[in-house]
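Please, structure for the following, as tokens.
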Amino acid sequence: MTLATGTRLGSYEILSALGAGGMGEVYRARDLRLERQVAIKVLPESLFGDADLVARFEREAKALAALNHPGIAAIHAFEEVGGRHLLVQELLEGETLRQVLASGKVPLRKALDHAVQIARALAAAHERGVVHRDLKPENLFVTGDGRVKVLDFGLAKITRPEAASGTNLPTASHATQPGMVMGTLGYMSPEQVRGLPADARSDIFSFGAVLYEMLSGRKAFSGDSAADTMSAILKEDPPDLAITNQAFPPGLERIVRHCLEKRPEQRFHSAHDLAFDLEALSLPSGPRAVTLAAPTRAFPWRAAAAAVGLLALGLLAGRFVWPRPSAAPPTYRRLTFRRGTVWSGFFAPDGQAIAYAATWDGTLTPKLYTTRAENPESLALPLPEKTLLSISKSGEMLLLDHLTMTKGYSVTGRLSQAPLSGSAARDLMDDVGDADWAPDGTRYAVVKRSGGRYRLEYPAGKVLYESSGWINYPRVSPSGDAVAFTDHRFLEDDRGAVAIVDMGGKKTTLADGWESVQGLAWRGNDAVWFTASGNGSVRVLYEVTRKGRQRAVAASPTGMRLQDITQDGRVLFVQESTRLDAVALVPGETRERVLTAFDWAYNPVLAADGKSAVFTEQGPQAGAGYAVFQRRLDGAPAVRLGEGMACAVSPDGRWVLAVQVRSTPAQLALLPTGVGEARTLTKDAIDHSDGWFFPDGKRVLVVGHEPGKPERGFVQDLDGGPARAVTPEGTVPRLLAHDGSAAVVTTPDGRLALLPLDGGAARPITGTEPGDEPRGWSQDGRVLFVSTMERSFPLRVFRIEVESGRREPWREFTPADPDGVTHLYATSVSADGKTVLFNARRDLSTLFLAEGLR
């Protein structure tokens, strides 16, 4: 019986019916306690007495409780009210994939985007030991902003109950028996049709059927009767996707076929592998050639037919013609074997020796080593701790030390020069981000930071290109006529493009729209190889020509960062496993508490009450526009608030100021922490990057820049209207004063000062030192908490009495496991100074030599 509008079920009020199925009726409802709208799934009254179905309903709730992923509908509660069992979930606005498919096949780019999201969600479920077993278009929901959610875990099976981490989730063996067919015809795997046990590979088969339908507009398996459909699943292959007359990226049909193998062991072994292959196909600029998909073994007759055809042609021509053998696969040789981080690596002039910079065994500052491929035993160079930027043809190294992290990924330091023999280095210049020798070995290209902007100079002193974002990997072409580089729009992350600039300063963007781009080298004089990702940080190796033609070259499951290429095509790269954790030090605890929702939680910020934090998840699970999460410090699960990059929490804790990074220029939005709708705050020409609420909660101080100008501070009213510039160009606010009257800014000597927002000269904050980063105020505004950006343990937080200038150590932090930690910095301090939030980036990487890549 459908529940009427206004019906009360405990603390929930029914608003309207959303749908119904064999396992439940779904309603839009209002949560009267938290004043938010939710979706409630209720067992039909006719099923109250069915113990098996009630148990299955509860199993669905517990399966959802074991999962925390943006691609899986979140559960809020599971309750029993008046004999009714309620499953309370997040309310989704949009339509099911079945409704989408009613209009026909899904456009290719959108289908691939949906597929990657579904595969990532399945991977997360499988990691927790949850197998869905009923994946179909009806159980996939597409929200209004294009996010895909996996629904209905009513048939879910738990294959590893210990992975449910305290949920006491039972296995499905108590509810299903061998030989019982469970699933939906047309999407069941062959093993499900036969009533055999189904594991994660069964979900991969169902996924393949869904993907086939998205791409072709027709079901992969169908028949006039249930028996015919089952027979098709067991014995037949769906028609080639070529029947759609649609151009697909090479490898896509192989991926679909690989999912739809009849035997489980011949399918993808994991949804992670599947997502990885799809992601490589779905990158923004559409690579033309991808070699990631595993070859299918279900259709050997095609290869045989091709060989017979070629043989027949040869016989007609009077000679034998055999199929041309495929090129030998590339080989990979591991060069480093210690636990830690490889920063950079380059071939020596002879092309055999390799020099690299790394931090091993819990150290923070890189040291220099040399090795050879035929004998990969590393020898330390007798030089102070430095990182390596380039090696000239005469064996001179460009080095960087005195490293300072300015923001996000952007690091600058002092450039020096030293011979590969390892004798003393000669200092060249300060405020350098990266550099590269020219082919003649006498000049070099350099990236410098000046006045809040980054400049690419070649030769040093001649500015070819300038950016308000950051620039790295400058690489001079073999002919010396141009410099290739990675061009990043924001300082906060590594999104960006691959570009070249000629000696006249003409810049050409070759490949744009990358979620992460790091690593670049010339392959001959007409092509650039680079490593980038269209979603997340797992980077793939690509080639792009000067004319913009692009193709994929190679990939690694954990990601690659290109370092160098020899003239004969041998490639040096770093294989990476990285994560960025948001960490809290809370009163009464001696060990850090990790707040991260997934694997890349950036810039955690405390709420005014010190009981919760917001942060930005920038990994692939968060999506292209990133996602803002809120988490209580008592260990409660993280809650996704919306898209964007978190900046600050309002004084009353109700709103989060967020940068919408997918806008161009980036705009500001307000995301509610409870009841309410997100709203866009700005629509102007300012490219925004940071901000803070004023004490009255009615205005925000924001950082941004107008087209072609350096960053500065602006005041923006929450009620709308144009922003008002309040700091000079190039003067960037670092924090808002406690009373909102001034901005904390950095002086030319690196110290901190208070700059009045209504005009007037900046007043130095006595007691600050060069490199101090402002992290919070005491409750009365008399004490400023600062942290240092030094690359050493422990990380220290200081308290400075603003009036007297008295400076004293306040808190210290050393990670329990320091191996591979490359960046460690405080981000927020509570008003009592007792709670400190940190970011800790861990990069465990290995240097590899590849031969035979083409």
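Residues 160-181, 282-326 have pLDDT under 50 and may be disordered. Residues 297-326 form one domain.
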